[in-house]
Write a structure and sequence with these properties.
By secondary structure, this protein is mainly beta. The chain has one domain: TolB, C-terminal domain (Neuraminidase, 6 Propeller), CATH 2.120.10.30. Helices cover 4% and strands 33% of the residues. It has 3 helices and 33 strands. The strands form 10 sheets. The chain has a 5-stranded antiparallel sheet. The radius of gyration is 21 Å and the shape is globular.
């Protein structure tokens, strides 16, 4: 468990961040990119997502959903009544793949008590219609309801895959972290219970129904599950429960799936899982790994709790196989060697990211996985395997340091082919910055500026984009011209991501 910052320490940290030098690219990136401030005039920014026409939604922790128009003006599209304690609030937004015809978006939010929320029924995922510049509350269609949220680790990640389905990252409820040396099994077992939706990556259709090929659809009980209601400070009571597994589950065993991203090329789901004792993780759920257990709370990074081995996951009914190892692991503190393997260090709280495929990105920088560290205020990138199922674990490059203060909470590719990073202020102004190529490549004629091609029509059910191969057909050549401006996204839908969850009262600063 990480200590909560004292007021004096936090005040000193904030003062230092506000007088520090400006955000800075490293030498490897400074010659090919510039880091620009894109937006600064909104409070407590927790995320950003682009519409197909270039407009964008910016999230505010206190519930504000702001529409940024193409001329730079802003309008509050809606204000949600949210619980803002700890990590709760307006946590994620995704644009429905059929937005051109439906005008609908999806929101993950922490309902306040006055709007019907409670610790056992805190988080909701809803679809709404955008009418003009305003979200219509009467159009709400509840896709997923009553996710628990008694303390922290609230997840909030949303990402549509090229299959047209919605992937949702949830947290394990946090609350009772009392195991500094992992001597015994963690008291909070939500992530490993098949009758709980917390600590999971979930998969549903755009209408809230369950895809027939989800891994636990139609499977009968019993399952390893929760038998008593969870309360802070008291261990979960776990045993065999004679109920079927929750059919929404796509994968399980995550502490806090703070950011997830559905790769439009491979349909692999990239999960930034926030660590506890000393490790941060990037997990990749390939289609072959759906239904598998990714280790928490038995394993964090390379360390096993109480002498556990990966086989422990396969002892849990309905036996999902051995615990899946992370695609990338980063230690708190310096580089760390465990069982002869040396892992990167200097991590504290991961913000999962995206593979940037923008045609404009220069060779050598395109096709890498870009992510951030929330507490360190840094942006990194990693080489991606050819089949996009993982990364080269020793290929990490430091991209930039956000020395102006604030904490990166979401990364997404924008309609201009730039990488956008939303930064929660907490003692410094909230802002959104973008990584822009100084000498961009030229995109082939007829391709969109950002994101994979997504067809303008869907199947009869409105969710299967089987005719989309997820690729843009980019055969880029280096150009000497300046970066093109916003090109209409008639052929493409701007990108994916999801959103938020953090740690303790000092949200986004001291992470779970």
């Amino acid at each position: 468990m990480r200590k909560l910052m004292t007021g004096a320490v936090l005040a000193a940290a904030m003062a230092t961040s506000t007088i520090a030098k400006a955000d800075a690219l490293t030498d490897e990136f400074a010659g090919s990119f510039k880091l620009e401030t894109w937006l600064t005039n909104l409070p407590d920014i927790t995320g950003v997502r682009f519409l197909p026409d270039g407009r964008s939604f910016v999230l505010g922790k206190a519930g504000s959903l702001t529409l940024v128009k193409n001329d730079g003006t802003t309008v509050e599209a809606f204000r949600f009544s949210v619980d803002t304690e700890s990590e709760k609030g307006l946590l994620g937004v995704a644009i429905q793949p059929d937005f051109a015809s439906s005008n609908r978006i999806v929101v993950y939010w922490s309902r306040s008590d006055s709007s019907g929320g409670s610790d056992q029924k805190r988080h909701r995922v809803s679809s709404f219609e955008l009418k003009g510049d305003t979200l219509d509350p009467a159009s709400e269609h509840i896709l997923l309801d009553n996710l628990e949220g008694p303390a922290n680790h609230d997840g909030g990640a949303l990402s549509f895959g090229p299959d047209g389905y919605l992937y949702i990252g949830t947290g394990d409820c946090g609350c009772n972290e009392t195991i500094p040396a992992l001597p015994t099994l963690h008291q909070n077992r939500r992530a490993t219970a098949w009758n709980s939706l917390n600590g999971k990556v979930l998969r549903i259709k755009v209408d809230g129904t369950i895809p027939s090929d989800n891994p636990y659809v139609g499977l009968a009980g019993p399952v390893y599950g929760i038998t008593t209601p969870y309360t802070c400070g008291h261990a979960d009571s776990m045993s065999s429960v004679n109920v079927p597994p929750s059919p929404e589950i796509y994968a399980l065993g995550f502490r806090n799936a703070f950011r997830i991203w559905a790769d439009p090329v491979s349909n692999n789901i990239w999960v930034g899982d926030v660590g506890e004792i000393g490790w941060e993780e990037v997990n990749v759920i390939t289609p072959a790994l759906k239904g598998r257990h990714f280790g928490w709370p038995f394993i964090e990074g390379p360390l096993k709790e109480g002498g556990a081995t990966p086989s422990i996951c396969d002892t849990l009914q309905p036996k999902p196989g051995e615990c899946v190892a992370p695609a990338y692991t980063c230690a708190h503190g310096g580089d760390t060697t465990v069982n002869g393997v040396t892992y990167d260090g200097a991590c504290q709280s991961i913000t999962g990211g995206v593979i940037v495929d923008a045609c404009q990105f220069p060779d050598g920088f395109r096709g890498r996985y870009y992510f951030a560290d929330n507490v360190k205020g840094t942006i990194y990138s990693l080489n991606v395997k050819g089949d996009r199922s993982g990364v080269d674990p020793k290929s990490r490059q430091l991209v930039a340091r956000l020395d102006s203060g604030g904490y990166p909470v979401e990364l997404t590719e924008g309609p201009d082919g730039s990488l956008y990073v939303a930064i929660y202020g907490y003692g410094a102004p909230s802002r959104i910055v973008r990584l822009v190529p100084t000498t961009p490549n030229t995109c082939p004629a007829g391709t969109a500026d950002a994101g994979p091609t997504i067809p303008p029509t869907v199947d009869a059910g409105g969710h299967d984009f089987s005719d989309n191969d997820g690729r843009r057909g980019c055969s880029c050549t280096t150009a000497t011209s300046t970066q093109p401006g916003n090109v209409p996204l008639a052929a493409g839908l701007a990108l994916l991501g999801a959103f938020i969850a953090r740690k303790r009262k000092n949200w986004f600063r001291v992470r779970g």
